[in-house]
Structure formats: structure tokens, C-alpha cells
Amino acid sequence: SLIGRLMFELPEEMGLIAVAVRQTQGKGRGGNVWLSPVGCALSTLHLSIPLHSNLGQRIPFIQHLVSLAVVESVRSIPGYEDIELRLKWPNDIYYSDLMKLGGVLVNSTLIETTFHILIGFGFNVNNSNPTICINDLIAKFNKEEGTELRPLSADCLIARTVTVLERLIEVFQEKGPNGVLPQYYKYWIHSGKQVRLWGEEGPPAWIVGIDDCGYLQVHQEGKGVESVHPDGNSFDMLRNLIIPK
């Protein structure tokens, strides 16, 4: 992609973002196709992260920071704090725990002592099909609560996401995971949920949180807490399984 080629030719301190009004050849996790109709906020952002920094040593965490930034882009606006936008580990944006509204994809390339990160994030702002969009959630909230919150625009939310992400990265670089995890847990959908390990007949385990590298921690009776790696597992919320891919 153009942004992938450009990112190595820019001065270090210059940021780069591409915003797609419509996308037809996007890439998702595991080579999935990621289409973006009009009404979605979709962009690719380039960041440089020093290897020998807090985040450089825990680079998988970046997808959680981006997911959190997307949710915060809405829920940090005065009046919009209770819009039911949430996080699903490792990289999805959800309406409550019911429906996916968006996602995040991160590619990192280490060159000498710097990670060059390409972050793709997309979320449905203003398109009621095929699932639900952020402005539907706002309309639903207005109806239930008698409020008059205005619909939001994709441009505004992309800009807010990038601003929030910069702040989250600063906090992470200064304080490490504990600087951002309380905020992350406030919005995630997994607290205290039970899952089955390795398949439908597998042993039950409870989700505890995420570890210092951003991997999921589960507690299995009599076994203690163990971490589950997102790339080796497909986390199927509908069947509540954590299974080897």
C-alpha cells in the first residue's frame, strides 16, 4: 500500500495517516478481506515506537491502546459517557457484548531500534447495515434517556481517536500497563466471564484480565492463572470458547 511505502521515507517526527472514504481492498486478521462501505470511519495510521521503551518492550499492547482510543473517542465526550461502546479482546469494538461495530489491525516492522507500526482501524459511525452503528446507539440512548445528543461524524471520531491514542501512548511510556489498564477494564466485556479452554468439551476457566504483554489471562480451577496468546487462539464470544486455531 502507498502508506506502507511512504512510512520509511518520512522524517521520524512526522506522523502519517490515511483516511478512506470507502475501501474495497482492505486486509483483516489472518488475511481476511476488510471492506468498508460509506459511513464507516476507516483509516491507517503510522507510528514509530522505540524498541527500548515501555511500549516497545510490549508491542502487542498497541492494539489494545488503539481499541481503547476508539471507545474513548466517543465516551470521553461530555454527555456521551454512557453510550454502550465496549472492547472485546484482542481487537474488536462492540455494542455492549452483543454486536461488533469495528476493529483494529496492527502490523509492526522492527528496523534497527525502532518499531514502525501501521495501525488500521475502522468502526461503523453512520451505516445501519449490516449490523448497527454508533449513531444508532446515540439515537437509542436519546430515546431511552430523553437526551438530545447530536450524531457524530466519522472525521471527528478519527481525529479524536488519534488524539486519545497519543495520550494513551504517553501514559503507557511513562507508567507501563498499569497506567492504562484501569481505563481498559472499565470498557471491556469480559469481566468475570467463564470460557472453555481448547474446545466445547474443554475445562472451564474464568477470564481474569490481560497480562503485561497484553495476552489474555484465564484462571483454571486448581491450575492457577495462565496467559492465552491471541494469534494461536480464536476467541469465539458467541460460543464462549478459547480454542487453538
UniProtKB/TrEMBL annotation:
User: What would be one Pfam family of this protein?
Assistant: BPL_LplA_LipB
Q: Which UniProt keywords apply?
A: Ligase
Gene Ontology cellular-component terms for this entry are: cytoplasm
Keyword tRNA-binding assigned: no
Q: Which residues form a coiled coil?
A: none
Tell me if DNA damage is a UniProt keyword of this record: no
Listed GO MF terms: biotin--[biotin carboxyl-carrier protein] ligase activity
- Domain annotation BPL/LPL catalytic: ranges: 1-173
Database matches in NCBIfam families: birA_ligase (TIGR00121)
Q: Which family does it belong to?
A: Belongs to the biotin--protein ligase family.
Protein name, please? BPL1 ligase
